[in-house]
Amino acid sequence: xxxxxxxxxxxxxxxxxxxxxxxxxxxxxxxxxxxxxxxxxxxxxxxxxxxxxxxxxxxxxxxxxxxxxxxxxxxxxxxxxxxxxxxxx
Length: 89
Known about the structure:
It is built from 2 helices and 2 strands, in the order βαβα. By secondary structure, it is α+β, with helices and mostly antiparallel strands.
C-alpha cells in the first residue's frame, strides 16, 4: 500500500504489545514518511471491530484494508476435526 502512495496506516492489534519486529517495521514506515496508528482490537469480537473502524474512519477516510495473521506456535488440537479441515503438522 505504501508503494502505491499510502501515507497513513492503521494497524489493529489484539495484544497491542510492542514486539521488536513490529517496531522495526514501524520505524521503517515512519522513515518513509508514513503516519502509523495502532488500535487495540480483537477481530473476532464484532463490537471491537465496529469501534476500531469507527475510530479510524472518524479521523480519515478508509481507502483500503489488508488482513494479515501470524501463527507463533502450532499445536495439535484436542477438538475433533471436521472433514476437510484437518490440522497440518
